[in-house]
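For practice. Supply one:
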Amino acid sequence: MIRPEILAPSGDMECLDAALSFGADAVYVAGKNFGMRTASKNFSIEELKTACDKAHAAGKKLYLTCNTLPRNEDVVSMPEFLMAAADCSVDAFIIADLGVFEMAKKYAPNVERHISTQGGIINYESANAWYNLGASRVVLAREMTLNEIAEMRAKIPADLEIECFVHGAMCVSFSGRCLISSFMTGRDANRGDCAQPCRWKYHLYEENRDGQFFPVIEENGGTYLYNSRDLCMIEHIDELVKAGISSFKIEGRAKSAYYTAVTTNAYRHALDEYMKNPSGYKTPDWIKEELEKISHREYSTGFFFGTEPGQTTQHGGYIRHYNQVAVCESYSEGVATITQRNKFFAGDTLDVLPPSGFSFEVKALKLTNEYGEEVESAPHAMQKLFMQVDKEIPAGSVIRKKIVDIK
């Protein structure tokens, strides 16, 4: 049985630290160029070296996305970028373009090459072709079913790894190959600059009735024609492992460190629980509940089981039940030193997710600012506070609160 890695997204150093602390086996990041998420902070070459050092010191791997589809003017600077990244000791490049693939082989021959989901790999012949060219891993198109993945696993070399997205936002276009953003805004999704027009609200106009619009469905708010649900496979870890998937990939390089911590923690524990007891495995309720504590769209299992509808036409926003309110920096003798993220009050009951173990509740008995003054609430983002609590909070824990309780 293959023991899959948990592969977590990291859009900046805070996210990377969260991924490593909460159980990722590997992280994937982008440099300042050639990555498919320009909205993220991403990593300069100096930051990339620091990130690699952190990951390797923790016994983890770091993969660098080079998965845009570059134009002629872009490829001029690609060799220098690849060589600099190799000098940082990245473990692999994630590549969508054949030309970039060949340049990576020439300018960074010691770095593994993974084929991005943008490569649209959906059959074993394609996977074998990339393997013969030198790829060590294929990131499959999200449109594949588990049965198709299992068949592919049986018909490709044993040392060719299979990576699949198991959680996060899904693009309405096949393998993320979208032209809507370019057409409507001039921002090229295939070069990392998607404006996400698939999440916008659309109305239908009749050409002879100027200024009048008609909802496509009978909803006053219009309809979200292209709005994909979020993927969530937390209840199907056993089936993912049995299909022969080598790496469970979590989407979200444009998302927060809190999202990274919670999703990484959930899939880490779910996989570990399964590997301990494959025959009697059932996803623990607390793990499923964790994924309800992050902002998300309606969940689905995507294409893994065939033709389950992946669209949600009723709204384009997120479901949110909790807010992250703080991060614990340290704890001593009943007092947690915290950095605030959102407003909360002394006396609140808070939910704590430690870097290892289960979530638990604490009571914020008293709050004190950096000047030793007792305060009623934590109103300023990133403010350092001292919180007297009724239970020990491990350093690195994320602290959150139910939104319905916020005053």
